[in-house]
């Protein structure tokens, strides 16, 4: 079974995938955020193997992208040192894809497929 939560990071300044960005996934449990997975984006800018085989659960999740170290490797200063999005899972049977479009001075996300 594929991971119920995936991400894809595209560097809009480079016009391609953001390879090598650290990303952490949290779940809100009893009011506290608990880290449940972490990884680094692959050559295609993706993390697709979080939570493989784990049961999907309703709840509030947070995804945190370590943008500062990524841009520092390019010799750039990033306006957003960390990008964090909270999202809700209501239908655990569905796939949740949380992409990030990023440049040193802009960010965007949406619920992907």
TrEMBL record:
A molecular-function term among this protein's GO annotations: hydrolase activity
UniProt-listed Enzyme Commission number(s): 3.5.2.17
Function: Catalyzes the hydrolysis of 5-hydroxyisourate (HIU) to 2-oxo-4-hydroxy-4-carboxy-5-ureidoimidazoline (OHCU).
Gene, per the UniProt record: hiuH
Catalysed reactions, semicolon-separated: 5-hydroxyisourate + H2O = 5-hydroxy-2-oxo-4-ureido-2,5-dihydro-1H-imidazole-5-carboxylate + H(+)
Pfam hit, one: Transthyretin
Chain segments annotated as coiled-coil in the UniProt record: none
UniProt cross-references to InterPro entries, sorted A to Z: Hydroxyisourate_hydrolase, Thyroxine_BS, Transthyretin/HIU_hydrolase, Transthyretin/HIU_hydrolase_d, Transthyretin/HIU_hydrolase_sf
Entry keyword Oxidoreductase: no
CDD domains: TLP_HIUase (cd05822)
PANTHER family attached to this UniProt entry: 5-HYDROXYISOURATE HYDROLASE, URICASE AND TRANSTHYRETIN-RELATED
Complex and partners: Homotetramer.
Protein's recorded name: 5-hydroxyisourate hydrolase
Domain Transthyretin/hydroxyisourate hydrolase, first and last residues per copy: 5-112
EC category name: hydrolase
Hydrolase keyword on record: yes
Alphabetical UniProt keywords: Hydrolase, Purine metabolism
Family of the protein in this entry: Belongs to the transthyretin family. 5-hydroxyisourate hydrolase subfamily.
């Amino acid at each position: 079974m594929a991971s119920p939560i995936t991400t894809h990071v595209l560097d809009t300044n480079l016009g391609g995938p953001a390879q090598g960005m650290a990303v952490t996934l949290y779940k809100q449990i009893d009011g506290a955020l608990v880290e449940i997975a972490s990884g680094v984006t692959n050559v295609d800018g993706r993390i697709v193997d979080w939570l493989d085989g784990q049961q999907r659960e309703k709840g509030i999740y947070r995804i945190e992208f370590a943008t500062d170290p990524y841009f520092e490797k390019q010799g750039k200063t990033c306006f957003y040192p960390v990008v964090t999005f909270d999202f809700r899972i209501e239908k655990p049977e569905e796939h949740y894809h949380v992409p990030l479009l990023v440049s040193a001075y802009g960010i965007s996300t949406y619920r992907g497929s």
